[in-house]
Specification:
binds iron/sulfur cluster, TIM Barrel, 6-stranded parallel beta sheet
């Protein structure tokens, strides 16, 4: 990737080995507690998003969430079940990888610490965390992760300053020092960035790469724009009219010249050229209007080129 220095690792460095029926990989969703309410998320994954449902109740968007039974539930627990702990201890010799998910997993650091401390061969274990980058890591968790074989730390960033703030409700300046601190304090870390593609950020990808480059991270492993919105499906880039997607493709045509090996950009280029998911487009507009109303924002003001299609 020209201009951005990435770690020279191969998939084989990250793969897990097993020839047994033992549990080697724990994939743990700690809770749906989250301090953000990103537009492409929904109440089942974020308690903050769940709070907004109260204000959306009488809107088409509110009915849509209710019809899909995506209701607000508060799933969290600060205690680890004793039976679960003993299962981990009994399996300690086989575990090779533990993945923590949320909500925002760093809101549950005490749970992570308890969980990791119940494993007795930390030096053989890869830990994966995907975070929104807004929460500082406690010293105790940093120390514990430093005992692990590897921390694969992914941060989600969907746009440069204005669009990022529109989508996530916070400023990029807030997450920058936290990402750097986590990067610097953990010796066996690899850092990845996950950019979710959606209707609001189709012009943003080169700008996000520029922002990542300026962070100057020495342990950067991967940047991917492979993630796309499955639900709500009306935020999928293919709901937008083809004219505006062609403009986004032109930006990517220039970008790919300096990033010729980035297959995730190539995949996005292909997606942008596919036929419109016309059946969802009215929902895209309704959702944008309803959420803008209750959050006192205006997508059309910040990105009129796309916004004019959503009015
Ligand atoms: S940070 Fe993640 S879990 Fe929280 S609202 Fe955003 S996408 Fe959802």
């Amino acid at each position: 990737m020209k201009g951005i220095k990435k770690l020279d690792l191969y998939e084989s460095d990250l793969k897990i080995e097993t020839s047994t029926q033992d549990i080697v990989w724990y994939d743990i969703r700690l809770s749906n507690q989250c301090n953000l309410k990103c537009r492409h998320c929904y109440p089942a994954l974020s308690t903050s998003w769940g709070e907004d449902i109260k204000f959306l109740k009488e809107t088409e968007t509110g009915k849509l969430f209710t019809n899909n039974k995506i209701e607000y539930t508060y799933l969290h627990n600060d205690e680890l079940d004793e039976k679960f702990i003993s299962e981990i201890v009994n399996n300690s010799n086989f575990i090779q990888r533990i993945e923590f998910k949320g909500g925002e997993p760093l809101l549950k650091q005490n749970l992570m610490i308890k969980f990791l401390k119940s494993v007795n061969n930390l030096e053989k274990i890869q830990v994966d965390i995907c975070s929104n980058g807004t929460i500082r890591m406690k010293d105790e968790l940093t120390d514990t992760l430093n005992k692990c074989k590897l921390l694969n730390m992914a941060f989600s960033v969907e746009g440069s300053e204005v669009i990022f703030k529109y989508i996530r409700g916070i400023s990029l300046n807030k997450i920058e020092p936290i990402i750097k601190e986590i990067h610097d304090n953990i010796k066996n870390i690899i850092v990845c960035f996950r950019i979710t593609q959606m209707v609001y950020n189709i012009f943003e990808f080169p700008k996000v790469y520029d922002w990542i480059k300026k962070l100057n991270l020495t342990k950067l492993y991967d940047i991917s724009i492979q993630n796309y919105v499955v639900f709500p499906e009306f935020l999928n880039v293919r709901t937008l009219p083809i004219e505006i997607r062609k403009e986004a493709q032109q930006i990517l045509d220039v970008f790919i010249k300096s990033h010729p090996t980035d297959f995730t950009v190539k995949k996005l280029q292909k997606t942008l050229g596919e036929s419109q998911l016309i059946e969802y487009f009215n929902l895209t507009k309704t959702f944008t209007r309803d959420l803008d109303n209750i959050r006192n924002t205006s997508f059309n003001d910040i990105e009129p080129k796309i916004g004019k299609y959503l009015l």
